[in-house]
Amino acid sequence: MLVERIATIKQIVIMAIVAVTVMFTSQVQAHGGLALADDMCILTIGPYRMHFTGYQPLSQEEEFCEDIPEIGKTVIALDYIQEELRPLTTEVRIIRDTGSEANLDEITVFHIPPKVYPTASITIDHTFPEKGKFVGLVTVTGGPQEYVSRFPFSVGEGRPTSKIVIIAPIVLVLAGVAFFFMRRKNNPDGASPA
After folding, report:
1. Which range of residues forms the domain containing residue 99?
2. How do beta strands 89-96 and 72-80 pair?
């Protein structure tokens, strides 16, 4: 009976470890053209890629890759990964996410006109005065065709809660419930085991 109980507890622990491992081994995907790869935020624009770094110098010490945690001053750096981007023009636009992009000028909150960046680095310095849903548009032209990366993001919704903060208590509660019912099943009359 004790051996069966230990085997069941081992199964529960192994299932919990597998569940947590599966959740953390999948690649973290961001919205639209942004993705986290090799601990770097990568923005994909057609065949080209840029390194994306965002931070809020007045309220956050950590960098972010997707959603902007707080309203206020925000600095974003886009650094070219490929040399082929240097002679091309790049345009950056941030718009309110209204569901329609029919009139870009009307919904634009930040705009850097098309320009060549021989230094391979673009800095966006913008203050978001209110919470909301936005879309970043990065357009690259001058090559064989025009490429646009479109990535939706939110501002002021805080940092997403870590998966471990959510999962750990659930796993512990499930293990406790399983242990309680196993004990009750093996000792139906409620007497203490000797």
Report:
1. 34-155
2. unpaired
3-state secondary structure of 48: strand
Residue 43 backbone dihedrals phi, psi, to 5 degrees? -105, 125
Report the number of distinct structural domains present in the chain.
Answer: 2
**Does residue 146 sit within a domain?**
yes
| pTM flag (> 0.85) | no
pLDDT in tens, 13-58: 665 554 544 444 333 333 455 555 555 689 999 999 999 988 898 8
Q: For 19, left (φ over 0), alpha (ψ -120 to 50), or beta?
A: alpha
Q: Using the structure block, give the residue that is written with the tokens 């009976």.
A: 1
The residue written with tokens 């805080």 in the block is: 158
- Host H or E run for residue 164: helix 163-186
